[in-house]
Amino acid sequence: MADNPLYEPDTVEEWRERLPLLRPLEVPDVNHYTIVMTPPGAAAVAGEITQHLAASTPEHLDDGPGPTDGAVPSGAVPKAR
Question: What proportions of the chain, in percent to the nearest 5, are helix, strand and coil?
Answer without folding.
Answer: 50, 0, 50
